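Consider the tokenized backbone below.
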């Protein structure tokens, strides 16, 4: 995680405690002087983008401003949505106001670059400003301009190599590591077999050299919220890698886990337990780091972890989930782990599930969590 994590959470707190921030009916989309709207096509593309931003783009429906091919292929067709809209679009976009920086012709497409920024932030909330700069495309569809993700445009000339059920897609300058690539399928097969998961569906594995390069595939020229080196997008059957590697166990786990709207602490925890941490740390290394830091602080609670109020630099949210998965395995084997994996995305349900599976009282959850983590403390 990056330093911006702290300031982003401060900003999210600002939104949460001030729910009326940015609540207006219409999203005003400014246009930089560089964008020549006297040209017919550029004016049409600018109008398309402004209309889309005013169409509740964080909602999943048959949005008329997006191209049909991607709407058919992907339920969540706008790849930037999970990262851009940390709050409802009307609230966020009226606060971080969009300014179209450029609309440039690129072959058959128009590239649309947009800045999302605000003014007058108090000092504590300035670091996440600007929120992001997006770049996606407009393409003609049945005579009308429609929006399109950057990924197929950027990767049109990239190399492809399919090994068993995984298709690796990478830029021409990337030196493909066949030894690493051949480890991916066996890892997926073994995990699926161990937990008796359903047969996993083939997927694409996009390799980039950095988080920023990966962000471009998600329609970002610059972003902070959601900034990471890897994403396992199970719903799209795509793994995004920003480390230049053909083998990313943590994200592979996300592609093998059966799809379910499970709690993030358990989803990420299972991936950390079985696939290690982003950056190469093993589960054991991450658990030891968390335990050693927790031993220095006797005021941290399980609620602090759930709300990400402590330990972001120790990946405490991910590692806590991993510790719980391992504790479930030690207590009841694979069956108990699978019950933990059925925990829905609800903090109250998560607490109830933990208390039920580990046979503890609610008042004892802090002591239980602390005890499980501290088992990994360096002797």
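A designed sequence for it:
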């Amino acid at each position: 995680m990056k330093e911006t994590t702290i300031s982003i959470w401060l900003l999210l707190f600002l939104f949460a405690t001030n729910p009326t921030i940015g609540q207006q009916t219409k999203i005003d989309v400014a246009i930089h002087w560089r964008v020549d709207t006297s040209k017919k096509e550029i004016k049409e593309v600018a109008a398309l983008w402004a209309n889309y931003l005013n169409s509740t783009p964080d909602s999943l429906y048959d949005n008329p401003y997006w191209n049909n091919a991607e709407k058919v292929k992907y339920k969540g067709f706008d790849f930037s949505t999970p990262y851009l809209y940390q709050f409802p679009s009307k609230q966020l976009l009226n606060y971080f106001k969009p300014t179209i920086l450029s609309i440039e012709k690129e072959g058959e497409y128009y590239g649309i670059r947009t800045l999302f920024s605000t003014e007058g932030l108090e000092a504590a909330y300035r670091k996440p400003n600007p929120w992001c700069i997006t770049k996606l495309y407009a393409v003609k569809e049945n005579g009308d301009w429609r929006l399109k993700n950057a990924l197929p445009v950027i990767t049109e000339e990239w190399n492809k190599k399919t090994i068993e059920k995984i298709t690796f897609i990478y830029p021409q300058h990337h030196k493909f590591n066949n030894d690493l690539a051949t480890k991916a399928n066996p890892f997926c097969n073994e995990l699926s077999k161990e937990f008796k998961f359903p047969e996993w569906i083939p997927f694409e594995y996009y390799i980039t050299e950095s988080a920023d390069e990966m962000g471009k595939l998600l329609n970002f020229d610059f972003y902070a919220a959601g900034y990471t080196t890897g994403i396992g997008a199970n719903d799209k059957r795509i793994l995004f890698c920003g480390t230049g590697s053909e083998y990313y166990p943590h994200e592979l786990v996300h592609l093998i886990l059966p799809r379910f709207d499970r709690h993030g602490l358990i989803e990420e925890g299972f991936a950390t337990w079985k696939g290690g941490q982003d950056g190469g740390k093993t589960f054991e290394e991450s658990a030891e780091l968390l335990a050693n830091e927790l031993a220095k602080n006797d005021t941290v609670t399980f609620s602090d972890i759930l709300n990400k109020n402590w330990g972001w630099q120790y990946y405490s949210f991910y590692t806590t989930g991993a510790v719980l998965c391992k504790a479930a395995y030690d207590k009841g084997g694979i069956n108990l782990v699978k019950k933990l994996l059925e925990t829905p995305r609800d903090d109250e349900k998560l607490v109830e599930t933990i208390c039920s599976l580990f046979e503890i009282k609610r008042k004892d959850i802090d002591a239980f969590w602390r005890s499980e983590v501290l088992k990994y403390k360096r002797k």
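The CA atoms of residues 157 and 183 lie 26 Å apart.
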